[in-house]
Amino acid sequence: MTTVLHIDASAAFDNSVSRAATARLLADLAPEKVITRDLATTPLPQIDAAWINARLVAQDDLTATEREILALSDTLIAEVKAADVILIGMPMYNFGMPAALKAWIDLIARPKVTFAYTPDGPVGLLENKRAVVAVATGGVPVGAPVDFATPHLTQVLNFIGIKDVDVQVAAEVIADKAA
User: How many CA atoms lie within 13 A of 114 on its CB side?
Assistant: First the structure.
């Protein structure tokens, strides 16, 4: 059974190139199950000092308040763990990723949960997953010196163990499907 976690990060709806591309890619993937996370319709909070501190407490030592602080992060991580493929629609805003997607990253990158520190350096704990990223750039070529979004997202996914990352130009996905 293939499960896809479909994440849209665009604040635009009607004319969103990244949303159109992920819709087409999702149809191509034809998963048996889809978990949807729309970061524009359901915004995520920014991490704060309480979250930073709670994430470092051993699971068995968490207080009820700390568990509540980490509850959303736990939910987001469970979505990633349940997925075989993470499909991300990422527009580029001012040469970087949207703040909404950065908030998602901050909430899923957790020591001892999605990565671990070892004597040989950090090791990602989310293995055997694939990510497909549809990047809408508004004209900045993916991989250009001013593309800070794509390398950042790829690095974070690799860091948490998702090494199979397929970056696609959203406009090309739409054009290919229209032809």
Answer: 25
Residue 51 in tokens = 């979250």
By the 8 A CB rule, do 146 and 140 touch?
yes
Domain-wise residue ranges, the chain: 3-178
The helix/strand/coil state of 8 is: strand
**Residue among 162, 147, 65 at smallest CA distance from 108:** 162
Separation in Å, CA 72 to CA 60, 69, 95: 18, 7, 28
The model's pLDDT over 42-98, given as tens digits with 9 standing for 90+, comes to 999 999 999 999 999 999 999 999 999 999 999 999 999 999 999 999 999 999 999
Q: What is the CATH number of domain 3-178?
A: 3.40.50.360
- Chain centre distance of CA 2: 18
Question: For 39-54, how does the pLDDT look when each residue is reduced to its tens digit (9 = 90+)?
Answer: 999 999 999 999 999 9
For the purposes of burial, counting CB atoms within 10 Å of the CB of 98, is it exposed (0-12), middle (13-18) or buried (19 or more)?
buried
The predicted model scores a pTM of 0.95
Q: SS3 helix, strand, coil % of the chain, rounded to 5?
A: 40, 25, 35
